[in-house]
Design goal:
With 335 residues, chain A is an alpha+beta fold. In chain A, 29% of the residues lie in helices and 20% in strands. Chain B is globular and about 55 Å long. Classes of the chains: A alpha+beta (335), B alpha+beta (171).
């Protein structure tokens, strides 16, 4: 690992000041739980000249806002968020998704903000000897014709077929969460589905966070509380493995008609994939297996499978239909 | 010039001068003479480096030592009390919870942290409401210990050891 200067910030404004001493992209990083960044630095993928430790920032609370939203501080640990009583009562989907990710040790270290900033687990991104447009823009992509079983099928570009590895973020996409960001030019709020990017021609950019900006909290809207929901993760091992495909779903059926539906997919794209095509098709329809299957097929219609990941198309369709059917019949949420 | 930091390890204040890039794991093993904590994968995948920080289990390989100033760190060397093994250490011996022993310090620290999480009602991917559960099922135990690999495959003994401690210390 390259050496670097290390400083600890105790409040947000000092954190922004410390990071702005090294404003150019790639020379300074905020350090939170470290579960991804330290690993990437050890592999030489990230080589910051300066780290600003933000774990002492006063952003470790889950607080109820006057309008009923729940604000999750960026430094709340994943394990604490999953165990939080208000989260489990109002947003069980989020708690479930977090608990399917990583291991207990990692969840004790990893933070809410850091979870959003995870980089892909594409083997070629991690292998310094391989070609990767995300790691070295313009160099090429060895995943395209390589072993691409874990790679993306939706929203890909000719530059990159990497996936976003988070489970928590799939739930946050379905819950219409808001990302609160602060920077030298002020504060801003970003809809969760606009926070992460598709690769396009700039796969080196995972998110729309600007250099020097800091995530301060995530807001969970009151309108997403208490939904009948379920998170289903399909993976190679029963525990402690990244998703091949995951589905976050919430459903409200009234008078035999779907009144409200939230659907997001993990393991299939460069960002948590909000399945709005399927949602639009299902809203106002009857919650039948045929309708679920048709909506899933429409969502996956634009999929571009590669040599080793074509199975994900069928897996995603079946998992969507299964999870929605279970929710419609009153199962699922209880797991 | 390298910075000087102070770590609280196994109840003792330890001052050391290290580069910022030194992991908590390397600080313990190489700088503080505490080689009980093991380096397996060095990427957070195996759990051999598990230690307790403020009572919670973490992977010390992914932690920078500098970040852990002011925290209460407990390693495998700190579990015994005045020469008497911690019940989890004793149970691993009684149930053959190891073969080569390399993953064992991490398994034991992780198991101690896991029982504390379970008793505090922390949920898992298996049990939605652990607070209401008075039983640590094997499915529950396997899920909660999945961050610790044993390549010898001593899982049966590990499971028995943890179940014994859980049963013996049930409130």
């Amino acid at each position: 690992m390259n050496n670097f200067t290390f400083s600890r910030a105790t409040d947000t404004s000092s954190a922004l000041k410390l990071i702005s001493r090294n404003p150019e992209h790639g020379t300074a990083r905020f350090l939170a739980g470290g579960t991804n960044l330290i690993d990437l630095m050890r592999e030489g993928i990230e080589q910051p000249q300066s780290l600003v430790d933000i774990t002492l920032l006063p952003l470790s609370e889950v607080q109820q806002l006057p309008d009923g939203d729940l604000r999750v501080g960026a430094m709340v640990r994943n394990s604490h968020l999953a165990a939080n009583a208000l989260v489990r009562e109002r947003y069980p989907l989020l708690s479930q998704a977090i608990l399917t990710g990583a291991s207990a040790q990692l969840r004790n270290m990893a933070t809410t903000g850091g979870n959003l900033m995870q980089r892909t687990r594409c083997y070629y991104f991690y292998d310094g000897a391989a070609l990767c447009n995300k790691r070295a823009p313009g160099s090429g992509c060895d995943a395209m014709e390589g072993f691409n079983r874990i790679h993306a099928i939706l929203g890909t570009s000719p530059q990159c077929i990497a996936t976003h590895p988070s489970d928590m973020c799939v739930a946050l996409a379905a819950l219409d969460a808001i990302v609160n960001i602060t920077g030298s030019s002020g504060e801003r709020r970003v809809a969760f589905t606009d926070f992460h990017r598709l690769p396009g021609d700039t796969p080196e950019l995972d998110t729309n966070l600007q250099p020097g900006e800091l995530i301060t909290s995530i807001d969970l809207p009151a309108s997403s509380a208490g939904l009948h929901s379920s998170y289903r993760k399909v993976r190679d091992r029963a525990s402690y493995a990244f998703a091949l495909v995951s589905v976050a779903a919430a459903l409200k059926v009234d008078g035999g008609v779907i009144r409200e539906i939230r659907l997001a997919l993990g393991g299939v794209s460069h960002k948590p994939w909000r399945a709005s095509v399927a949602e639009d098709l299902l809203r106002g329809k009857a919650p039948t297996p045929d309708n679920f299957a048709a909506a899933a097929a429409a969502e996956l219609a634009p999929a571009i499978p590669r040599r080793d990941n074509a199975f994900k198309v069928e897996l995603a369709k079946r998992t969507i239909a299964l999870v929605l059917s279970e929710l419609a019949s009153g199962e699922g949420a209880a797991r | 010039m390298n910075p000087s930091i102070s770590l609280n390890v196994n109840g003792l204040k330890r001052v050391l001068v290290i580069e910022a890039r030194v992991s908590l794991l390397d600080a313990l093993r190489d700088h503080l003479g505490l080689p009980g904590t093991k380096k397996g994968c060095a990427q957070g995948a195996c759990g051999a480096c598990t230690v307790l920080v403020d009572g919670e289990r973490i992977n010390s390989c992914l932690a920078l030592a500098m970040q852990y100033e002011g925290r209460e760190i407990v390693t495998i060397e700190g579990l015994a009390d005045s020469g008497v093994l911690h019940p989890m250490q004793q149970a691993f011996i009684e149930h053959d919870g190891f073969q080569c022993g390399y993953c064992t310090p991490g398994q034991i620290c992780s198991a101690v942290g896991m029982l504390s999480e379970f008793r505090s009602g922390a949920p898992s991917a298996v049990t939605e409401n652990a607070a209401a559960s008075d039983q640590l099922t094997d499915a529950e135990l396997r899920e909660r210990m999945s961050g610790n690999l044993c390549r010898c495959g001593a899982y049966i003994g590990i499971r028995e050891a943890i179940q014994q401690v859980y049963g013996a210390t049930k409130p």
